[in-house]
Amino acid sequence: MLRVAAQDLRFGLRMSLKNPGFTLVAVLTLAVGIAASTTVFSWIDSVLVRPIPGVTNGHGLLSFESRTPNGEFMGSSYPDYRDHRDHLKLLSGLAVTRPDPLSIGEEDHAERVWGDLPLPGEAKEAEACTDSVPDTHEISNRGPSM
User: Most buried by CB count within 10 Å: which residue of 1, 9, 53, 102?
Assistant: First the structure.
């Protein structure tokens, strides 16, 4: 069995050396396929499979924001936040954030992205609710959201 495998490997190497163009195309095709598969599986693992870092109860996360009847984003006010915080008893905590432009990357190749930061007065309250069910919202590039 081992002898047959060694003969097959020698034959494959001889054929590869006889047709270098085909060998190059085959190796490049395999390399691109492996790279694409690795990229897709890495993305799926980091985004869909692994939990969000620092969140102990990821299935309990929820996000909500105000929208008009036609689906457009509508900013929420601080009184709205206080009302939700005081009257939504099904939530263990509520944090309000505001979208801020951030730069990610190196000096010459920085990319502008939107990230959410807790509002200054609510940072301690946001930290207090991260142990059980922290609330967050999707990245948005408009007004404060809850």
Answer: 102
Q: Tens of pLDDT along 110-139?
A: 888 887 776 655 544 444 443 333 344 433
Q: For residue 100, what are the domain limits? A: 60-128
Residues 65 and 123 in one domain: yes
23 lies in some domain = yes
Nearest to 63 by CA among 136, 142, 129, 141: 136
pLDDT in tens, 2-51: 999 999 999 999 999 999 999 999 999 999 999 999 999 998 887 777 76
User: Whole-structure pTM over 0.85, yes or no?
Assistant: no
DSSP the chain: -HHHHHHHHHHHHHHHHH-HHHHHHHHHHHHHHHHHHHHHHHHHIIIIISPPTT-S-GGG------B-TTS-B-PPPHHHHHHHHHH-TT-S----EEEEEEEES-STT-EEEEEEEE-GGGHHHHHHTSSS--------SSS-B-
